[in-house]
Structure formats: C-alpha cells, structure tokens
Write a structure and sequence with these properties.
Shape: elongated
Number of strands: 10
Largest sheet: 8 strands, parallel
Number of helices: 3
Order of helices and strands: HHHEEEEEEEEEE
C-alpha cells in the first residue's frame, strides 16, 4: 500500500494487507474490537490507497512494524512467504542454506528494510514486485554474485531493501512473481 499517491486505486492485496495490520493492532490492544470490525469493513470496501492509509494513520509506526527477524540455520531451506509483516531489520546467518523472502503478499509497513547477511555456500532469494529496490552496494562478495531480475533503477520504491554483510560462495537472486 502506498499512501504517497492517495488517489491510486487499491488492489485486493492492498486491502488484505491493511486488514492484517488492523488485526495485529487489535491484538496489541491499540484498537477495540468494535473499531476493528468497523475498520475491516471499510478496508474491504476501500477503492483508493488514500482510503486505506486513513484506516491506519492513527496507529503509531511501531504498531505497524514487526519484531526483528533472525534466520540462523545450517543446511536446508528457510522461507517466509504469503501474508507476513515485514520488519525493519532481518539477520540472516546461514551455512549451506537457501533463504527465500517473498514480498509478494507481505504487509510492508516501512519504506526501508535492512538485511544483515553472513552466508556461506548458500543462496538468498528475494521475490518482489517491480516497485521494490534492492541495494547490494554494502555486500562483501567472496566468490559470490548478485543476479538481478531487472537492470532498471526504481526511482521511488515502495520498499528499499539494503543488504549488508558478507557472502562467501553464495548468491543473491532477485525474482519477480
């Protein structure tokens, strides 16, 4: 959801993400069950991004963000997909592991996500829409590479992912859904 263009038409996914944020806020005690019911109804019938943004505008920023996510694993696969709330910080510390972060249906509550990476012999796959930018300038690559889905630069991304850290014999792969 992007409140930067309030007249932009809302999608089903935008509505679903706002409903999830509202449910989390109600679970945290930030809104009452009556407010939740009213706001969910309004979210499901919202036609524009501005209408959706108004439904969460009175919630503090920390209510809309998830706790930091830490991925520590040796071998195998680790994945986060579907409707999940994107935190402002993720730590990935793996060996011989494939990590997939799928932002297609994620609840994005911040414009920036920092991912600290310490990966050996693995792969981090980032699945995202064209309005997500991935910054790999702060990665230290040793026998590693970054494979982009597109060479285009996103001027005003909905989410900027900053990858920081070290990859040894590993790969960052950007995919589009």
């Amino acid at each position: 959801m992007s409140a930067d263009v309030p007249e932009l038409r809302a999608s089903h996914g935008d509505r679903d993400r706002v409903v999830e944020v509202l449910r989390i806020a109600a679970g945290d005690g930030r809104i009452t069950s009556e407010e939740l019911e009213d706001r969910v109804e309004r979210a499901l019938t919202a036609q524009t991004q501005g209408e959706l943004a108004a439904l969460v505008a009175d919630l503090p920023a920390e209510a809309l963000t998830a706790e930091d996510l830490v991925v520590e694993q040796r071998s195998g696969n680790w994945s986060r997909a579907g409707q999940w709330t994107v935190p402002q910080h993720i730590t990935v510390k793996t060996k011989m592991c494939r990590v997939t972060l799928d932002f297609t249906d994620a609840v994005i509550t911040s414009r920036t996500l920092r991912i600290d990476v310490d990966m050996e012999h693995g792969r981090i796959v980032i699945v995202g829409a064209p309005d997500i930018a991935i910054d790999t300038d702060q990665l230290n690559l040793t026998f590693s590479q970054v494979k982009r889905a597109s060479k285009d630069v996103v001027a005003d991304p909905r989410l900027r992912i900053q990858l920081v850290g070290t990859l040894q014999h590993a790969k960052v792969v950007e995919q589009r859904p």
